[in-house]
Specification:
The chain is α/β, with parallel strands linked by helices and 425 residues long. The chain folds into three domains: 2-81, Tetratricopeptide repeat domain (Serine Threonine Protein Phosphatase 5, Tetratricopeptide repeat, Alpha Horseshoe), CATH 1.25.40.10; 96-245, Rossmann fold (3-Layer(aba) Sandwich); 249-394, Rossmann fold, CATH 3.40.50.11350. 41% of the residues lie in helices and 9% in strands. The protein contains 15 helices and nine strands. It has helices at residues 2-13, 17-30, 35-47, 51-64, 69-81, 106-123, 158-162, 215-218, 233-244, 249-263, 278-281, 285-299, 313-323, 349-363, 376-384; strands spanning 96-100, 126-130, 169-170, 206-209, 268-273, 305-310, 327-328, 368-371, 392-394. The strands form two sheets. The chain has a five-stranded parallel β-sheet with strand order 7-6-5-8-9, with helices on both faces. The protein has a four-stranded parallel β-sheet with strand order 2-1-4-3, with helices on one face. Strand 1, helix 6 (106-123) and strand 2 form a beta-alpha-beta unit. The protein starts with a helix and ends in a 31-residue tail after the last strand.
Length: 425
């Protein structure tokens, strides 16, 4: 706890608000009344110009520890600032959030989209998704690859944003002539590694998100007037997925056809098992994969089938040897070594995205599910359906419910507001 407090204060002193916020939320997850962490979140909110949130946090810190002078002094400062005039509105009546591809695994990219859609909702922006050339699931056509898989999330496209007259942009690295760029100062340089909280109080016409936004990071920032305020992260994910993720009709038809022919009659346990690059990325993968077999031996019902999702041909062979024709699987591209299939130059990228979607949605139709929570595929299957605790087993914690400090440790710093007081922390 103390180490997180020191780290949060250090990041805040360096104006790395995203990293400081992650540290504070880690503390508050264990100790919701920790006055130091509450005070620090108030400072973060105040530096973002979110004065109402800052007041709430400072009041909570004072209530948790009435003798904590830093919190009471900060509360007095921010109450004076709330009387300041509001920021001028954008010159356009409508404001937009352009959501670019994160550029990694399929469901990792979709989860970034879901987090950004939550951001669009709570900042009242119109979302526009555009997966460009940096998507690992596009072709050479330069079309929006997101629409290969899902219906558009709004009636606007990147072309419509380009056609706007004199829009202003956030962050400042973007402009009309750069709108089509991919991986533009994403990891290094001015405005790199921007977290969701940096967008919460911006008035520019077009905000552009190209760095990962996790819904879990936005959860504490959902304003009280929003219907998702106070809801669990699982509820938030299911709301976003139901509202925005509408698979193309041809994909739904293929899923329905496979289900009807192979899975409709009898009980099925879906098993998602990662091999390939996950074995080198995550040192415990091989051990976790062996646990699948032990768990199935203990719990598999005599007549149940196994719907196996795996990117690794070697593990498919293991399951076929162990369970024979009880193993059901789709005709997917797979790898036979430790190179992720989505990194393979020989893979058909669009087909791969379609295969991942089909397997994922088929898994949600199973009676039970076993997966590796450190894989976005497994983590998403666990969230797309409201499983009972007994029917959904993740053999490691869900990556979608964790805050990732590593994304921001070398992130950008935000200059202090010229008129702001020196906050006490």
């Amino acid at each position: 706890m103390e180490s997180f407090q020191r780290a949060a204060a250090d990041y805040l002193a360096k104006a790395n608000l995203a990293a400081a916020d992650v540290c504070c939320r880690q503390i508050l997850a264990r100790a919701p009344s920790n006055a130091v962490a509450l005070n620090l979140t108030g400072v973060i909110a105040a530096q973002l110009g979110l004065y109402e949130s800052a007041v709430t946090a400072f009041e909570q810190a004072c209530a948790a520890d009435p003798a904590f002078r830093h919190a009471s002094e900060n509360l007095a400062h921010v109450e004076r600032l709330t009387a300041a005039s509001p920021q001028p509105a954008s010159m356009h009546s409508e404001r937009f959030l352009l959501i670019k591809a994160w550029g990694y695994g399929f469901w990792s990219d979709v989860n970034h989209v879901l987090g950004a859609l939550l951001l669009a909702e709570i900042t009242r922006r119109i979302p526009v998704v555009h997966w460009g050339s940096n998507s690992r699931f596009t072709d050479a056509s330069n079309r929006d690859a997101f629409e290969f898989y899902f219906e558009p999330v709004s009636e606007y496209s990147i072309e419509d944003l380009y056609a706007l007259e004199d829009p202003d942009f956030f962050p400042s690295k973007w402009s009309k002539d750069k709108l089509w760029l991919e991986n533009h100062a994403k990891w290094h340089g001015q405005d790199s590694r921007l977290a969701a909280l940096h967008y919460l109080n911006r008035r520019e016409t077009i905000a552009v998100s190209d760095f990962y936004i996790g819904a879990v990071d936005l959860l504490p920032w959902i304003p009280p007037q929003h219907p998702l305020h106070g809801k669990s992260i699982e509820h938030v994910y299911r709301h976003l997925a139901k509202k925005y993720l509408c698979p193309r009709a041809s994909i739904v038809a293929a899923i329905d056809d496979f289900f009807r022919r192979h899975l409709a009659n009898g009980r099925t346990v879906a098993v998602h098992l990662r091999g390939s690059d996950k074995q080198t990325e995550m040192g415990t993968t091989a051990e976790i994969n062996r646990r699948y077999l032990h768990l199935l031996e203990e719990t598999l019902e005599p007549m149940s089938r196994i719907f196996l999702l795996t990117d690794d041909a070697r593990w498919l062979s293991v399951f076929k040897t162990a369970y024979g024709n009880r193993v059901i699987f789709t005709d997917c591209q797979r790898t036979g070594d430790d190179t992720g299939i989505h990194y393979s130059k020989s893979a058909d990228a669009v087909r791969l995205g379609l295969e991942i979607m089909q397997d994922t949605y088929l898994a949600t139709r199973a009676d039970r599910f076993i997966g590796n929570g450190q894989s976005n595929v497994s983590a998403m299957i666990a969230l797309l359906k409201e499983w009972s605790a007994a029917d959904c087993i993740l053999l490691s914690p869900s990556v979608l419910l964790e805050r990732n400090l590593r994304l921001y440790v070398d992130g950008i710093t935000q200059p202090a507001q010229k008129s702001a007081p020196k906050w006490r922390y």
